[in-house]
Every structure is written in C-alpha cells, then in structure tokens.
Design a protein that fits this description.
Layout: H1 9-14, H2 23-36, H3 49-56, H4 60-72, E1 76-79, E2 85-88, H5 104-127, H6 132-146, H7 153-167, H8 173-188, H9 195-213, H10 217-239
Antiparallel strand pairs: 1-2
Helix pairs in contact: 2-4, 2-10, 3-4, 5-7, 5-8, 5-9, 5-10, 6-7, 6-9, 7-8, 9-10
C-alpha cells in the first residue's frame, strides 16, 4: 500500500495488515498501540472505518466490533453529527490492576511458557485414548466456560485449560500449567473483558476440545496456538 502523505508515518507503521487467525484481537491490539504510544492525541479522531478496514486487512464489521469494545472500555468516544466520528477519550481509563511494574519481557515470558505448555498439552491429549470419564470432564468444563458470567469467567476458563492438561496424561504437567495460569490471570485481570473476545475464545475452546476428542493432534495444537496468540495480542495491546 502506498503511504498516504496526510497520515503520520507512525500511524502508517502501526495500522498495517493483521495476521490471520485472530482478526478482532489483533485489530484491538493495533488500535491500542496507536493510542498508548501517543500516535493519537486525546480528542483526536480515528480514521474512518472503511480506511481502517483497508489498512488492517479486516472486514468493516471487525473494525466496528473493535471500536465498540474499546469505546465500552473507555478508550474511545463516538460522536454523531456533521463533525462526528470516533475520537480518543480525553482521559484514558485505568483497570483493576496496577500495570506500572509490568514490562514486555514479563508478558512475553509468561506467554511463551504458556505456548510451550498448553500447545503441547493439547497435542498430547489428542494423541491419547481418553477414558469416558476424561472425555466427559472436557465436555463439562467446555460447557461451564461457555455459560460463565463475567465475574466467574477467568476461574472457569482456567478449569478448562487445566482439564486439557490433565487429559495429556502427565501428572507433572498440571502444576506447571496451574502456576502459569496464575501468572496469566494476574495479567489478564489488569485488562477489561471484551465481549467479542469472549465469544471468539468460546469458539476456539470448542475447536480445541473437538480436535482432542477426534484424536486430531495437529488440529488441537494449532487451535490452541491460535487461542494463545489471541490472548497475547490483547495483553500486549493493553499492557505494553
């Protein structure tokens, strides 16, 4: 895409096509980068949805959902009328945790360890012949997290991921996953729950469990890898 002389170079670099697999989460991350790095000043407007969709390589619906999520979280403000549009809030919100002591190295370490542990767990679980009880636990944990209220989501999400680790058949793996989940949940508690991300996570959870129960090792691993990448995009977007 040819650079637009009216668009700052930093914005041009940040608002580039997202990776396939997690378009919503990656769009949120890119928009947050332009906000948190100061490319947009308080009260300044975002480019139009059509332009953002073209630059990010996603649908206008995805852009609209990302903007709505960030507006609900207090980062953006929609204004109607002749001079309407989507504008950066005059004051950015603070969330439940204190991210002042969190740095990218800490986030990357927790996320890389998660990928090593949980992608491997999904692959191993799919390679085993699961008992009826193990299969029932996976379905039950999946159903629980799909219907979880916001206040209970992190706990039930963790229970599903621990059930996948248990299904891998290595007792030593479970405490490692549990410890890593504690680190991740401490980070995730510092960012808002986004309804569209939860819906996407539910779809990914189902894909992971279905692949495990179908004994599709590579499918389970790839579904888990995509799921981990979605969380990574949001954490980097909000906390970096």
């Amino acid at each position: 895409m040819t650079a637009d002389p009216d668009v700052p170079l930093a914005s041009e670099a940040l608002l580039r096509p997202v990776r396939p697999g997690n378009p919503f989460e990656d769009t949120v991350e890119r928009l947050l980068q332009t906000i948190r790095l100061g490319v947009l000043a308080p009260g300044e407007s975002l480019p139009p949805e059509r332009e953002l969709a073209a630059r990010l390589g996603v649908s206008r619906d995805t852009v609209r959902e990302a903007i709505k999520s960030l507006a609900d979280a207090g980062y953006l403000v929609a204004r109607r009328g002749r001079y309407g549009g989507t504008f950066l809030a005059d004051e950015l919100p603070r969330h439940t945790g204190d991210s002042s002591d969190v740095n990218r190295a800490e986030i990357d370490d927790a996320l890389r360890l998660r990928e090593i542990l949980e992608v491997g767990a999904a692959r191993m679980a799919a390679s085993r012949t699961l008992t009826a009880a193990e299969r029932e636990v996976l379905w039950s944990r999946l159903a629980d997290v799909r219907g979880a209220p916001p206040d209970d989501y992190r706990r039930l999400d963790s229970r599903l991921h621990l059930a996948i680790a248990e299904a891998a058949g290595s007792p030593s793996l479970v405490p490692l996953v549990a410890e890593n989940r504690m680190r991740l949940n401490a980070l995730l508690d510092q960012i808002p729950l986004l309804a569209r991300n939860i819906a996407h996570s539910d779809e990914q959870h189902e894909a992971i469990v279905v692949a495990i129960l179908a004994a599709d090792s590579e499918g389970a691993a790839e579904a888990m890898r995509a799921h981990v990448a979605g969380s990574a995009a949001l954490l980097h977007g909000f906390l970096d």
